[in-house]
Design the sequence.
């Protein structure tokens, strides 16, 4: 158990170092030696966890995957919205998520398959939209996979624009504005009227998840 | 006149070389010496046109600016749509536009102000939407500047996703799908019913502009 803990800590130290170096230098220019120097681990430990630069990048790319899924909600469209705004919140607050998103948009990263995060986010979105459809929350013409792709693609660009213009300071407002433009083509009006897409939603969802997590730690394992 | 022609050709050769090097190496890793070697011009000529790497990048970033504006149309929303789908068409067909868009999303480009293309496209979109608003084509709640920002940001991400997944092969379909999701929140239904946002629109607009350009060359200057 202690040994496993240490392996997790080492892996995390390596990924944090890789994220930092990829972010500063770009995938193409980054070298394993630099990552090694920043991580402060042995060469053996690094190659044990990640046999190549590509594996390191894949590891960082996975760090934007949804960690704590949004709990079930009566309204599944709200759950989809919460997934989107929480990701925006993490972009503002978590350097690892930021590095991961930047890497997936690094068009100079030759030989690196950057499709993973796009495909995984699309899958998360498609699943939620299919559920919302069954619950009657969507307009009848909606194709869940197509709409999920639009949401994922549009979000990627809105975050890039916010980053280029003001280093993410206006990201919650821009994401709220994007949802205001997309949802009326997707969601039935009665659901639209109840969904919270204001710019404070991301921080509120994060607080909710932290409270749920703290509560789960207090429950004795039976 | 001949001298000016040569200057234009030299400037173009330098920008083409800069685009190629930035695309291959990223802004951060690219050097003026490499660009010089690819361009095949003298050091003096290069520094005359572009005194620094940042100036070279700014030059490439300007290459995605709208070159031939879409002509006036009875429906200004169609003109906006045509501006968007033509840009998508150029992304598929023009390496310089592609290099420019990649550079504006290069988050490793430290010290380079990448806000220019976002702001200029937003301005183009805002102007068209303000005109459409005056013509009664927009829903009454629409804020032209906000909607323009959503369109520009969302487009940037949809193109990045198409590039990462299939090197732009499905870009026209994705852009058409994005417009299907955005326009119903922006445009009055009677206008929506007449606007062509199919995936073949970009190539059609390009053909139209080429014909207009060819015709203008045949008209004697009075």
Sequence:
């Amino acid at each position: 158990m202690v040994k496993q803990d240490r392996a997790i800590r080492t892996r995390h130290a390596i990924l944090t170092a890789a994220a930092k170096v990829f972010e500063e230098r770009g995938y193409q220019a980054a070298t394993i030696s630099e990552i090694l120097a920043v991580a402060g681990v042995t060469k053996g430990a690094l190659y044990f966890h990640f046999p190549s630069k590509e594996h390191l990048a894949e590891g960082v790319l996975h760090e934007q995957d949804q960690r704590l899924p949004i709990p079930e909600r009566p309204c599944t469209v709200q759950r989809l919205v919460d997934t989107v705004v929480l990701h925006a919140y993490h972009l503002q607050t978590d350097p690892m998520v930021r590095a991961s998103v930047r890497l997936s948009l690094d068009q100079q990263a030759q030989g690196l398959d950057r499709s993973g995060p796009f495909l995984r986010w699309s899958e998360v979105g498609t699943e939620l939209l299919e559920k919302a459809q069954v619950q009657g929350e969507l307009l009848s013409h909606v194709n869940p996979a197509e709409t999920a792709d639009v949401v994922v693609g549009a979000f990627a660009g809105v975050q890039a624009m916010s980053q280029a213009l003001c280093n993410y300071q206006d990201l919650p407002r821009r994401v709220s504005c994007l949802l205001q433009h997309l949802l009326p083509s997707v969601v039935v009006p009665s659901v639209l009227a109840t969904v919270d897409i204001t710019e404070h939603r991301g921080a509120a969802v994060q607080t909710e998840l932290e409270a749920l997590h703290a509560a789960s730690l207090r429950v004795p394992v039976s």
The CA atoms of residues 87 and 202 of chain B lie 8 Å apart. Chain B touches chain A through 43 residues (CB under 8 Å). Residues 2-53 of chain B form a domain with the Arc Repressor Mutant, subunit A fold (CATH 1.10.10.60). The first helix of chain B runs from residue 2 to 29.
